[in-house]
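Lecture notes, unit on protein representations.

Consider one protein chain, 116 amino acids long.
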Amino acid sequence: EVQLVESGGGLVQPGGSLRVSCAASGFSFSVYVMSWVRQAPGKGLEWVSNITPGGTTNYVDSVKGRFTISRDNAKNTLVLQMNSLKPEDTAVYYCVRGSTWPYRPRGQGTQVTVSS
């Protein structure tokens, strides 16, 4: 059974940083593209970033230069380091196996709130 468990969300002030992680199990993590998507209040899912098995990364324009995606294939872990956070980054962040709609399977999500 595929399991994706996110952790690390929380409340942070604008300009602050957060690190969200995803523990993956039930599949061969190292051979899959992995992604982060997010869902802001009242909006649909938005793709944020992905990383290939070999480590090539891609980002949506709105987070380039602020977010960094990484993976540890030995530990089956996906990480999103978020710096210079803005209120518009407020969303539930989901770890996804793959990188295309409908963004499944995905985890239960972790809430990130950027507010003063």
